[in-house]
Design a protein that fits this description.
single chain; 162 residues; mainly alpha; 8 helices; globular
Amino acid sequence: MSQDHAPRTDWKTFRQLAPDAYDSVLALNKIAEQNGLDKQLLELVKLRASQINGCAFCVQYHIMAAEKLGVDADRLNLMVVWREAPNFSARERAALAWTEALTLVSHGVSDELYAEVSAEFSEKELAYLSTAIAAINVWNRFGAPYRWAPPARQKPPQAKAS
C-alpha cells in the first residue's frame, strides 16, 4: 500500500463537486452554536472527534479556531490526554466523553455516561451537542479519506530591522 499522503482533493474542490452536500453539513455544523452552546466548548469537541478520526485538516482547523477564541495552548496540547489532565471542567469532561462515545458509537453509550452528561447539560443542550458531534464526524469523513491538506497558519508580518 502506498504511504503517499498527498491530498486526493481539497475542500474547495469537494465543495465545487458537491455544493449541496457541503452546504448542508455546513448548516448542520452551525446549529449548536446558534442555539447557545459555548463556542470554546464546541471547538474542543470538534478537535477531539477529529483527533479520533485522524482528520489532519480538521485537527489543524479546530486548533486554530480554538486559539482565535482564546483557548490556551496547554488545553489544546493536552486534549489527546484530557482524562489525565486537570485543565478541563466537569462540563467539558462530560462533553468530551460524550464526543468519544458518539464518535466511536459502535462501542455503545453506557447509562453511566448518559447520566454524567445529563448532569452537565439540559436535554436541549445535549441534543445540540450531539448535533455538533454528528456534524464534525461528517466533516471528518470527507477530510480524512480525501486527505484535505491542513490549513496553513498565517505568518505574522516580519518586523523591519532598524
